[in-house]
Amino acid sequence: MCGIIGIVGNSSVVDRLVDGLRRMEYRGYDSAGICTINDGKLIRRRAEGKLKNLVEELANNPAPGEIGIAHTRWATHGAPTTSNAHPHATDHVALVHNGIIENYKDLRAELRDKGRTLESDTDSEVVAHLVSIEVENGACPENAVAQVLPRLRGAFALAIVFRSHPDKIIGARRGSPLVVGYGSGEMYLGSDALALAPLTQKITYLEEGDWVVVERGGVIIHDESGNVVEREIQTSGASAAAVEKGNYRHFMQKEIFEQPTVVAQTLSSYLRQADNSVALPQFDFDISSVRRVTIVACGTSYYAGMVAKYWFEQFARVPVDIDVASEFRYREPVLEEGGLALFISQSGETADTLAALRHCKENGQTIGAVVNVPTSSMAREADLLLPTHAGPEIGVASTKAFTCQLAVLAALAAHMAVKKGLMSREEEQRVVAHLLEAPACLNKALDHDDDIASMAHLIAPARDVLYLGRGPDFPLALEGALKLKEISYIHAEGYASGEMKHGPIALIDDAVPVIVLAPSGPLFEKSISNMEEVRARGGQVVLISDAKGLAEAGEGCIATIEMPEVHPLIAPLVYAIPVQLLAYHVACVKGTDVDQPRNLAKSVTVE
Ligand code: G6P
User: Fold this and answer.
1) 41 noted as active-site residue
2) What does the pLDDT read at residue 374?
3) Whose CA is nearest to atom 8 of ligand 1?
4) What is the rounded (10 degree) CA torsion for 435, 440, 442, 444?
5) 465 occurs within a structural domain
6) Is 441 among the catalytic positions?
7) Looking at ligand 1, which atom is closest to the CA of residue 297?
8) Same domain, yes or no, for 230 and 267?
9) DSSP assignment string, 38-104
């Protein structure tokens, strides 16, 4: 996804636009650009690569003006070059876009036929030309935009400025989020409340299909049909400090260390400590009637769903189907009337997951959404909103959102079991007590940060790394491999320990570190047998287990990481810490860009 921001201000806007981009750089960092209006001219500055390149460009070529728009890009159509960087402009208008214009090829052909010259390979530039043509033909900005929006297919958030109207920005939202911010004598537009946090806390979330005329004194919001509508003004909880690293070197590191606090915060809204019971929000929905759960998510959120499958099946004895969102609709899933479909997403905006959610809605499923952004599209479209309280997650590689998702999903599975009469009051008390131990155990796991940092050099030179886990710790092996790939660019694979002998064992040699996740407990012996199969072939094992497990099987490993001894229910939360820290420290050894790894974006709002 990309980030967009606009300011109709009463003083110079350039520094504030750049600061807004800095707060949104996690959304994409392939290029950045800005356009202000000054002395009747559009002043456009763009740069390939990270925001610092745009800052350098602006130092050499300033952009004066009290109105402007800006963009940070995650490339979809067209390479991440300066000419493909936003804003796109004609002599009359400039715009920034987040999303994809699906019919851009037809529109490009039409524009070429009209003799227009397009400078970029992007889908976005066509919109600038279409609006410009209307303006050149005498339309006012409002009419120009109203003419063009119905012609666009796909998803977009847009912010458009007009050279001859240095008093207004027009924004539009379809499929990609856009918020309006209210200042004093100034108004703002942004992709999210975080981007606007230092400017204002008073915001309006635009609804699907809305478009808005933003002027210094206020806004006029139109719905998809062009009717003027009122939308609620809310006070955003986004704090400017949430987007600061504090004393940490990276956002990812800060977010890993926040986990005991945010998991406790999340658990406190799903569990009642006074009597160790599950206390979910009141839903107008009979969860005991659910006969099948469908879980859909992407990336790290998908692995949280995989762990939850074990819990739903074990506690609530309900069958669970789980899919990655990009595959889900295309396999023509059988969705029985009355099923519960659960969507897990940090951002609540991932396009594949959102499309799957809508598909399930159309097919009679009750929609549950485990999301970290309570104002996101998924949160709004869900029947059952199950928020995680992780706070803003800025590091592109997800960490604290994952453990908070696990906390919510464990509580939900227990709740379903209680409602189905499959979990006695005593069992419920035990389960809740174990979950409430999680924050303290996460803290203990974090105590091993230095040990993990000092062994990272053993992994950093590897070309391939294998992660093994069994049962609910198998998804952790997948998550560990994903984290390592994402931020250290080392090829890694997660495997179910017992499945390794059916293929990946052929990869084992002394150059492939094998990270074994094996908490002592019912699956320990079997996991250790699989670990021995690796060692027998010269494999270099790093064993992550508790003191008991390490005493039994730690000898002969190239390194061990000690975890606290925990109940198997919370092991996936606790064992998330060493796999996150290991990836983090290996990336630091390799000197990669931890918070903004190459080619990735925090949330992908295109399918
Ligand atoms: C992107 C991110 C991943 C994330 C995935 C799902 O690919 O790089 O870290 O897990 O999207 O995002 P979501 O916001 O839906 O959890």
Assistant:
1) no
2) 84
3) 602
4) -140
5) yes
6) no
7) 15
8) no
9) ETTEEEEEEEESSHHHHHHHHHHS----SEEEEEEE--SSS-S-TTTSSPEE-SSEEEEEEEEETTH
User: Residue 503 — very low, low, confident or very high, per pLDDT cuts 50/70/90?
Assistant: confident
Cβ of 299 below 6 Å from ligand 1: yes
The pLDDT tens digits for 169-196 are 999 999 788 999 999 999 999 998 888 9
Write down the pLDDT at residue 604. Answer: 75
Question: Is ligand 1 within 6 A of the CB of residue 482?
Answer: no
Q: Which residues contact 258 (CB under 8 A, 6 or more apart)?
A: 390, 391, 400
Q: What is the pLDDT of residues 246-259, one digit of tens each?
A: 889 999 999 999 99
Q: Is the CB of 132 under 6 A from ligand 1?
A: no
207 shares a domain with 355: no
Domain boundary (235, 255, 286) is at: 235
Count of domains observed in the chain: 3
600 falls within a domain: no
- CA 300 to ligand 1 center in whole angstroms: 6
Minimum mean pLDDT among 23-27, 196-200, 240-244: which range? 240-244
- Residue 607 located in a structural domain: no
Work out which ligand 1 atom sits closest to the CA atom of 350: 15
Of 255, 604, 605, 606, which is best to mutate to test ligand 1, by the most ligand atoms within 8 angstroms of its C-beta?
A: 604
Q: Domain of 492?
A: 455-594
CATH number at residue 347: 3.40.50.10490
Domain boundary (386, 416, 446) is at 446
350 lines ligand 1 (CB under 6 A): yes
Q: Indicate if 93 and 211 belong to the same structural domain.
A: yes
What number is the average pLDDT over the span 363-392?
92
pTM over 0.85? The answer is no
- CA-to-CA dists, residue 561 to 449, 466, 495, 513, 584, angstroms: 10, 16, 19, 14, 15
Ligand 1 centroid–CA 446 distance in Å is: 24
Q: Choose among 16, 170, 180: nearest CA to 97.
A: 170
DSSP-derived secondary structure for 545-597: EEHHHHHHH-TT-SEEEEE----TTTHHHHTHHHHHHHHHHHHHHHT--SSS-
Look up residue 321 and give its two tokens: 């189907």
Ligand 1 pocket check for 398: Cβ under 6 Å: yes
- For ligand 1, atom 15, the nearest C-alpha belongs to 345
- Specify whether the CB–CB gap between 445 and 577 falls below 8 A: yes
Q: How far is 373 from 191, CA to CA, in rounded Å?
A: 13
Pick from 465, 458, 501: which is nearest to 482 by CA? 465
Residues 442, 476, single domain; the answer is no
Ligand 1 centroid to Cα of residue 156, in Å, is 19
Same-domain check for residues 258 and 117: no
300 lines ligand 1 (CB under 6 A): yes
231 C-alpha vs ligand 1 centroid, how far in Å?
A: 29
State the catalytic residue, choosing from 2, 360, 441, 557.
Answer: 2
Q: How far apart are CA 277 and CA 386, in angstroms?
A: 17
Neighbours of 175 (CB within 10 A): 20
Residue 192: its pLDDT value, please? 87
Which band of pLDDT confidence, cut at 50, 70 and 90, is reported for residue 5?
very high
